[in-house]
What does this fold into?
Amino acid sequence: MAPRPRPRTSTRDPQELADRLSAWLGTRLPGAKAVEVTVPTSNGLSSETLLFDIEHPEPPLRSCALRLAADPSAYTVFPVYDMVRQYRTMLTVARCTDLPVPRVQWLEEDPGPLGAPFFVMERVRGRVPPDVMPYTYEGNWLHAASDAEREHLEAATIGLLAQLHDQVPTSEAAFLELPGEGDALRRHVTAQRAYYDWVVDGLARSPLIEQAFDRLEELWPTDPGPPVLNWGDARIGNVIYDGFDPVAVLDWEMAALAPREVDLGWTVYLHRFFQDLTTALGGPGLPDFLRRDRIEARYAELTGHTPHDMDFFTLYAALRHAIVMLRIAYRQAHFGEVAVPANPDTLILHHDSLRAMVQGSYWD
It folds into this structure.
């Protein structure tokens, strides 16, 4: 599980983006200028974020974050970036729940101004557990925290999932229903199969990913349960914290209607991904943080719903993450950052843990 070089996150020119943003802002708020425009070095591998302030006598927002769809010509991680869907999701969550969702201000569907659709929201100050290097490594604020402080953060974060799943009526989130046949879980998995087929179109397929899909069928829950609004990318790296309290929940591009356990499995596994990476390189990581048993117990206490079939849902999370990792690796190959090996499974950083899950030995 040796990490590869950090892949590029954008092919756009930051200064050009800043100039075009100022021109667009003047059409929405006459006389306004975008100042202090920055592209964070921690920008994700999918949609991009710009940070800026508004210079104007009476701005609706002073400090802003702009969420920009990926450049369609830059070998994108996902096939579609539906900014309207993200915008509507954030409005719905803000209206129906107590979650701290940043206030959204403008939606721009025209790709002309910045090259792709985008929306603007308030910028929330605070700190985020880092992905690079992961928070499970030494040298960051979360690793340096006390056990009690991390437990507080963990409890508050699982509380976000409980509130989201309990407070949003499915009728309010019907626009997030995935197409296809069958119940919400079947539609969710079918969408992931379609995504995988898109990733490997014209390229080497992954035997391990296909084995994982087969194993899912063997473990399929007898009763997946009713769907709820799932955050989609439910992990602490998408939360801004003030101290150890959540003050902003970010990144809703993977939101969908699905069983509660889809989010829970993602939360469990995305921490395990970083923890496994750390221990594979000889570090202790944070073995008592975000443990599966504690997440399940706390969620049950908060909601009255006892998570079920979690071997299925953690495998599903690891499988979904593997597809994303494979796409990112093929993107790196496209830009000449890595070479494609004879066995494409080795492009998946967590191939060993995914294989162990397929074999049923990971949680032993």
Q: What stands out?
A: DSSP finds ten helices and nine strands in the chain. The longest helix spans residues 310-334. Residues 5-9 have pLDDT under 50 and may be disordered.
